[in-house]
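Exercise 7. Given the components listed, write out the predicted structure of the assembled complex. Treat all entries as one system.
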Amino acid sequence: MQFVDTYTVFWREMLVLKRSFWKFISSVLIGPLLYLVAFGWGLGRSIQMDGSSYMDFVVPGIIVLTAMTTSFNGVGVYINISKLYYHTLEEYQISPISAFSYTLGKILAGCVRGLISAVLILVLGYIFGTRISIGVFFFLIIFLTCFLFSALGLIIGLVAKSHEDMGNFASYVILPMAFLSGTFFSLDKLPKIIAYLIELLPLTHSSYSLRTLAFNGELPWISIAVLTGYTVVLFALGVVVVQRVR
Amino acid sequence: MIKVEALAKSYGNIQAVINLDLQIAKGEIYGLLGPNGAGKTSTIRMLTILTLPTDGKAFINGYDVTRDLAKVKKEIGVVPQHLNLDEQLTAWENLELHGRLHKMPRIERHQRIEELLEYVELSGRRSDLTSSFSGGMKRRLMIAKALMHRPAVLFLDEPTAGLDPQTRRKIWDLIRSMNAEGMTVLLTTHYIEEADILCHRIGIMDRGRLIALGTPQELKQKVGEVVLEIVNQGDTDYKFFNNREEAIHFAAKLEKNIFIRESNLEDVFIELTGRKVGDE
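Answer.
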């Protein structure tokens, strides 16, 4: 029965996504397109990374970055608005569904948004001349990234007491993570102590593992384990936050 | 049907509801009347599990609102004071979502949606996004949504606030017809006329406390069924009498502008609290 409820929450999100699909696509594309033009075509033409083009290097980073922001905002911003302004969260609070079902439904919908954005960047990257390897684990890492950042978005969206708080979290946590987690450059270039700190961030493991797979490297088990750990912890925390929200 | 024992709610140092006791019978329309900040909405939010009580107990159909959450959720329909429709969905989809969340079987769900859209006169707008609806239409759809899973108790928090008189009367008709079908209704309002016309019994709340309780007639009798307004250089004094003869007899001795009328719930409220219902 829990999964029927999860599907109901997911169904509502898909209805809304279907209705605003092209608006969603255009808003998702604009940022990555600028990154690809600026860092890939512009700056990247003169840079070689470990024998391959900078464009090939940066595309996996842009994929996880976009998956992160799309999932986080796709869940967090909407939940925050529905709680504070539209009061539609109350519909779920007074309905006989579990916090588990609600959390899972919202997060899976965030994953769909994130995965669509990732696929779009892959297609864009291909158009821009990128040739990277894609396989099952490549998509598993994108899915884990989407899942954990959707869960984080849900938690912050419910905990934030204003829309401004949401913006502050994005400015102080999401934005630095987007640029520092090895998305646009290799962490080898950084001082060790800073590199260690950055390795604590989940997006670092997303970009590292995706890039490794894109260049036919060995399966990055440690990073996959770290991402899975973050996913489990943030999902459990999300369920607790949903249970307690009043 | 609803039983409340020593219920209390505090927000920091502010006591919104203090030691509230209520008993509401099945099939009753019970009104909580009071000014803004009297504790009406906090009471409704506690009874509809949207906020936890600080103290006391409350039961809906025998189920504890702090423990038997799943059972309470099946028993109640809620129309909050603020608009809470999903404006990214159509009228039909809003009801469909509510029915799915309450695990109604597909055929029953769709029949109920048709029935309710007809009932609130929104059949013609079923496929429109609710963001395009007027305030009255949104309020009617909110009532339909709350009724979707056939709850035993309906909570209406200021159901007609901000609506025009015509829409207000339409909603009164809806409430009456739901009650005629056996539904228990607990509503809050600060409209005197609304409480007087709709409610079988009224509890008057002020500063978090229930200060009077009874049928509209009983409450008026409590202060006097006839009121004499004595206008004195811009100020008006009110004197209450059990009947018109007593009031006329008293007025005959006065050499001032006077006006005799039947008392209303506003008079009851002013007499009990020294303030008007609309005051903060």
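Discussion: Residues 2-215 of chain B form a domain with the Rossmann fold fold (CATH 3.40.50.300). Chain B has a mean pLDDT of 89.
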